[in-house]
Specification:
Shape: elongated
Strand content: 25-35%
CATH topology of one domain: OB fold (Dihydrolipoamide Acetyltransferase, E2P)
CATH class of one domain: Mainly Beta
CATH architecture of one domain: Beta Barrel
Radius of gyration: 23 Å
Order of helices and strands: HEEHHEEEEEEEE
Helix content: 10-25%
Structural class: alpha+beta
Number of helices: 3
Amino acid sequence: MKLSEIQDLIKFVSKSGVNEVELETKEIKIVIKTGKQAAPVVYQNAPAPFTQAPMQTLAPQQISAAAPAQEPAAPVATPSIDSKYITIKSPMIGTFYRSSGPDKGPFVNVGDEIAVGKPVCIIEAMKLFNEIESEIKGKIVKVLIDDATPVEYDQPLFLVDPS
């Protein structure tokens, strides 16, 4: 039996609602138990650092030849306004939550002062809720992501004024 078949079987059993399934062949014996028993402890390693290959830049002649004619692009924001702000980025892929529960208030709002180690959000990854703590001290200037939105690794979440 292949690992993928075993994983499919586990998913099927967990969705079916049965408490126990036992499967035995001449090669392997599998017992899958579910229910209100003590939940197993799940450990998650920190995500491996992701390095992105540098983007290739094209000369203006190459861009016009490579890309079909489109409307002019929107002007790029000037870095002078945002250059004094520090960005808190997502350390993993998952779903972004501003609070610890639907009936709870957000961890931080625009204008709030944050300190190193203060929780700013939660990112759910593989059914695990990871509390994201600030690594900088400052004031929240802008929340860049809507609540319950999927986020990518290294995606900006907050703008912080460190002064």
